[in-house]
Every structure is written in structure tokens, then in C-alpha cells.
Amino acid sequence: MAIIQAFQAGEFLNSVLSLFCAFVLGTLIGAERQYRQRTAGLRTNVLVAVGAAAFTDLGMRIGHADGAIRIVAYVVSGVGFLGAGVIMKEGMNVRGLNTAATLWCSAAVGALSGVDLAAEAALVTAAVLAGNTLLRPLVNAINRIPIDERDAEATYEVRATTDTDRLSEVRDLLVERLEAAHYPVSEVDVEERGEDEVEVVATLVSTAIEPEEIDAVIARLGAAEGIRRATWVVRTTD
Hints:
6 strands; 18% strand; membrane; methyltransferase activity
């Protein structure tokens, strides 16, 4: 009987609208993540948004504004732990930061929906989508801009091992392939590795490196005639 007595049609309809708003907006954010095949895709972002909305709505129903404020504080910290689970470190690279930030924003969208601020939730959703789509060309353009060597925190080197009598040929090939991939070379050194073996070291102009792109260049270099081994390394400065 307590369940029946606690049921209020007006409050129930309000909860339905809040959760529906969170579901729709979470779907918009998640669809973009799913399209790009990110770790946290459509379902994850929808569940985060709906969950945040449900908890916030519960706080509103029980404790009104004070209750919602306390719930939102726990939602923010709880999603922080969830976001940490999608961040992965692979060698020198850290992946998943943008995905974790998107989950955090999905929780914000859900919390806004839960306290009946649908317009604000839609605004945040638009901002998230703009950040994940419209800013990508700008990010790529900035990453391609060479920076002052004195301000660089990392130096990238591409190394190719070859026979001594093919040094000149491999050095030219290395520079050609790198510059064709838009990774200009600042200097080329040669290190002896034995009586008949040398290593050509190409230091790249200070710029951002896309691991997938440079890996593809290295793979093609490794398959080129005359090159025994090819690899790339990053050296950080304090």
C-alpha cells in the first residue's frame, strides 16, 4: 500500500520527461563516440546520462534542491572513477582522455535533465558535440605547426639500419619518406654499428606526432630494399 500511496502522477510524469531528455541527449553524444569506435560508445554514454538523471531526480524528489546538490556531488566523483577505467597508457602514449571527458559531460547532461533544466542540458550536449567534431580540424592543424626547439618537451628520431655501402641511398630514402608524410627532418646523423653496418638517425622538426601515421611510415621503410631495421623513438627533456 505504501507504494500506491507514494505514487503521484504529476511527479512520475516529470521523472519520465527528465529521463527521456537524458536518454535522447545521451544518445546524441554516444552516437558520435560510437561512430568513431571509441571505448565508451553509444550505450555507455546513454547509461551514464540516464543514471545521473535518475539519481538527481531522486534527490529532488526526496530532498528537493538540497538533496539534488548532494547527489550531484556524488555523481561527479563517481563518474571520475568510471572515466579512469577508459584511460590506457601504451608505451609513451596515453589514450582515452577525451573519452573520459565525454563521459563526464554525459553525466553533466544527465544531472541537468534530472533537475528539469532541459534547455541547459541541450546546450551542454551541443557544446560536447562541437568539441568532438568541429574542433578536430583545428586540433590537426595545430599539431602540424612546428614549434620552437627551445620549447620542445620531446624529440622524435627515426632510425634505419643499413649496410655501409648503401648509406647514401638509405639516407635519401629516409628523408624522402618522412617529408612525404609531412614530418620534416631537422638533421640526419650516422652512427656506426659494426664493420659493415650503420644506423641512419633522422631527427624530426619539433611537431606533434601521430603514432598511427609514423608507425605506417616505419612499416614501409622496414620493407624497403636495403634497410635491415627501422624504428622510431621519442626522447623527453626535463
